[in-house]
Design a protein that fits this description.
18% strand; 5 helices; alpha/beta; 241 residues; elongated; 5-stranded mixed beta barrel
Length: 241
């Protein structure tokens, strides 16, 4: 690849990384928030390399040395510009219902210690993981008669017209994402990828407090909400300040 093309590719990639990590929240679609500093550092290094390469080329030109070979750039090399330009011009869509519908639910880890008493709040905000763990492992069945509020996005359940409230969880990045789902009953499926705060009670299916119990909710109210900042964790939702 000719040196000017290499320099341009480095500059575009570095600028794209800095744009995504410094000036937008787009990077959160692909990696955890804790990886923001390495992304910024990587973008800065790529830009510095591009500047150094451009400066070296200028020095070669002034000295009469062309500083590069005269072979043509392979056509396939131009495809490298597509991901670089996408960071600046068009960010690929975030993971959502399409991915979740084709992924199995993340196994919920066993609660090794006993469950703490639930707060008295009603409705009680819970994560999808905490709700599932309470339904399937809490022998006190404390969640059985409680009204809870869960937040996630809509994933169609299949041909029966049902749906799941879903969260996608990044361990590190989108490549290792896992899914947690809670089945919803009592309302028709909203449009896929709609973010909702759903209030309801446990839908009786199986024996509460055991592995036979289904993580499911009888919906009383489903309110559209904005996608939270921490969309790729299963924490209580954070909203922009």
């Amino acid at each position: 690849m000719r040196r000017p093309v290499q320099t341009l590719l480095l500059a575009l990639t570095g600028a794209g990384l800095l744009h995504a990590a410094l000036f937008t929240d787009i990077y959160l679609r692909y990696v955890k928030a804790g990886l923001r500093p390495p992304l910024i550092a990587s973008g800065a290094v790529l830009l510095l390399l591009a500047l150094a390469q451009a400066a070296g080329r200028d020095r070669h030109r002034l000295s009469g040395d062309p500083g590069h070979d005269h072979t043509g750039t392979p056509r396939v090399a131009w495809l490298l510009f597509l991901p670089a330009l996408s960071l600046l011009l068009y960010a690929p869509p975030a993971l959502g219902a399409y991915t979740a519908a084709r992924a199995s639910s993340k196994p919920v880890a066993a609660q090794k210690k006993g469950f703490a008493p639930l707060p008295a709040a009603s409705p009680l905000p819970l994560t999808l993981t905490d709700f599932t763990r309470r339904v399937q492992q809490d022998r006190s069945r404390a969640v059985g008669n409680r009204t809870v509020r869960l937040t996630g996005f809509v994933t169609p359940a299949g041909e029966d017209g049902g749906w799941y409230l879903t969260r996608i969880i990044f361990t590190c990045c989108a490549a290792d994402s896992q899914t947690v789902k809670v089945r919803m009953y009592g309302t028709e499926a909203p449009p896929a990828d709609t973010w909702l705060a759903v209030t309801g009670t446990w839908h009786p299916h199986g024996t509460l407090g055991t592995g036979t119990a289904q993580a499911a909710l009888d919906v009383r109210e489903a309110t559209p909400v904005a996608q939270p900042v921490n969309a790729y964790t299963d924490d209580l939702p954070l909203t922009p300040s």
